Amino acid sequence: MKSSTITSRPKKPEHYDFSIEPWDVIKDWKLGFHDGSAIKYICRQGTKVGTGNLRSDDLRKAIENLEELYRDVLKEESGG
Fold first, then answer.
1. Can you give the pLDDT at residue 31?
2. What is the SS3 assignment for 50?
3. How far apart are the C-alpha atoms of 68 and 74, rounded to whole Å?
4. Which residues contact 31 (CB under 8 A, 6 or more apart)?
5. Which of 10, 20, 43, 70 has the fewest CB atoms within 10 Å, measured from its CB?
6. pTM, two decimal places
7. Burial, 41: exposed, middle or buried (Cβ in 10 Å; 0-12, 13-18, 19+)?
8. Distance separating alpha carbons of residues 9 and 1, to the nearest angstrom
9. 4-58 residue pLDDT tens
10. Cα dist. 30→36, 39, 50, 65, 76 in Å?
C-alpha cells in the first residue's frame, strides 16, 4: 500500500478567515473535543455563507457542545 504525505493545508473556507486560527487556540490551550468545538462555533458565528447558515445555528452548536462538556465534567466530578 502506498503511503501518502500531507504537504500543505487545504484552502481554508472563507468562514475561517481569522488572524488566529481556532485550531491553533484549541491545540495551544490543550482543549478537548467539546470545548474546542464550542470555540470553533463561537469564532465562526455568522460568517458561514449560504442557506441555513445562521448565526443562531452556530451559537446553538456551541451551546450543545458546552452542555455535553458540562455533563462530562459533572460525571467526572461525581466519580462516575
1. 96
2. coil
3. 10
4. 25, 39
5. 10
6. 0.72
7. buried
8. 23
9. 566 666 666 666 666 788 888 999 999 999 999 999 999 888 887 777 788 999 9
10. 9, 12, 32, 16, 18
